[in-house]
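Hi Q.,

Before the meeting this afternoon, I wanted you to have the NPW prediction in hand. No need to reply - just skim if you have a minute. The sequence and ligand are here:
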Amino acid sequence: MKILSAQQIKAADAYTIANEPISSIDLMERAASACAQWISAHFSSSETVHIFCGKGNNGGDGLAIARLLWEQDYKVQVYIVEVSLHATDDFTANLEKLPIQPQYIHASHEVPSITTGIVVDAILGTGLNRPVEGWLAGVFHHINNLQQQIPILSIDVPSGMMIDSSSEKSTCIHARYTLSFEVYKLGFLLPENAERVGEIVLLPIGLHPEFLQRESTPYHIVDAAMVRALYQPRKSFAHKGTYGHALLIAGSYGKIGAAVLSAKACLRSGVGLLTTYLPSCGYNIMQTSVPEAMCITDPRNELSMQFYTLVQEKQQYNTIGIGPGLGTDVSTAKGLEKLLLQYKQAMVIDADALNIISQYPRLLDQIPANSILTPHPKEFERLFGATSNQFERLSLLREKAVQYKLYILLKGKFSAIACPDGVVYFNSTGNPGMATGGSGDVLTGILTGLLAQGYQSKVAVLLGAYIHGAAGDAAAEQLSQEAMVAGDIIDFLGEIFKKLPN
Ligand SMILES: NC(=O)C1=CN([C@@H]2O[C@H](COP(=O)(O)OP(=O)(O)OC[C@H]3O[C@@H](n4cnc5c(N)ncnc54)[C@H](OP(=O)(O)O)[C@@H]3O)[C@@H](O)[C@H]2O)[C@@H](O)CC1
Ligand SMILES: Nc1ncnc2c1ncn2[C@@H]1O[C@H](COP(=O)(O)OP(=O)(O)O)[C@@H](O)[C@H]1O
Ligand SMILES: [K+]
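Predicted structure with the ligand bound:
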């Protein structure tokens, strides 16, 4: 699914009006009726609905929603916030059709004290053209202070929130739900806006499919349809050699669990053969807990320089996953440097392997093209530096993926996957139950398993991120977000793989 900028959304609107064709007031009616339907499905008509409208088309939506809910016997109060002297034509047309008398607000103290019902925020939408400040910011503060008692529903976008750049300097409505039209907006996907958007509900309003199909954008959402198209079923005459041999270099004293989780996830993602390279203290643990994995040990309790010679001697590994629980011992760093000089196929680099690279940045140039890096935000910052906001971080992510010809998956809710061509995919699966130690080690195992069995890096990272989150969602569904642990994500992988064939 494509993510469109405010400018592209405006163009989609215009294209739909010209080519469906439909009048702009009817398109607004369609958007408003999708919102009114959602509201009536979720809130009883005994609730008073307080609708705050600006004077642009977002306000026009609000007025139409007010009329539609009034027709369904809701008690409706409309407040027109005088954001501008100018009103749009569709706002004016809907004001003429409004069956009740609105109240006008020119100052923050004019916001009524509302103690029951629900609040609908239709003050500003994608037409925001400057940060919200001054008396309007005061109005927003008043509305936000109601939040504890009553739900705030923002129409299309929480008012005051920029969708294509940081809203740090703007006062925004903090919504409990954002009822947004047709497509995700980039700002919804970044953690800095989490408190502003609340729960996102996407409502289709019939924007022209031709426009959506042909419009190009660097930002996409990974969805179920996309991953089903990427998935390759196993061949009936396959043997274990068909699905590759992965080498997983992981673990240090006290962190063998990370290696175990990665190894199990790699095997449960369909790899043909798996060899793990571990410090000596991990041998019994791995052989007992994951008998399917072969095991080579380093004589030390940290991994030493020796693992590069192993790769040099045995070139049979289709890919290497390195990092979970590795530690950042100097000898491990030296081993990683030698490995990067020897091994030229795409690999998966995570956790302490990334931390080592951030200590020796020259190693970035040695990483094989098309490798997958999986930093969490802190690791990303160590690798590439701090940024002043998350839109800048996203630009930096794209820039580094292009510069080093890598797939860089920046972890979090809506993990952002930047590709060497500068395109970014946001993963749509996963939940806060996955914010538990070891979830990332499981992801490394999955990605290593998919790469080893022959998926191209791009397919492996999109498919892997999606199934990792989907298995996490299945685990949370069964066990709760609190009680699930990283190992449960592995246990639910099978359920997700079963749903992938078309
Ligand atoms: N997507 C679709 O296909 C469809 C979209 N639709 C809807 O249209 C919405 C976009 O409507 P829009 O373009 O009229 O802009 P909108 O957000 O109402 O704001 C414009 C007003 O805000 C003002 N203003 C701006 N910044 C300000 C600030 N900081 N502080 C104060 N004022 C500020 C600006 O004032 P001015 O700059 O003129 O002073 C102007 O008056 C979209 O979000 C969706 O709800 C549906 O109806 C149909 C299908
Ligand atoms: N709130 C969340 N929503 C969706 N996915 C999440 C959430 N929290 C964590 N995850 C996922 O869980 C994984 C956590 O990885 P990481 O922080 O490296 O964990 P660890 O180092 O403990 O293995 C990432 O893939 C991340 O996207
Ligand atoms: K709004």
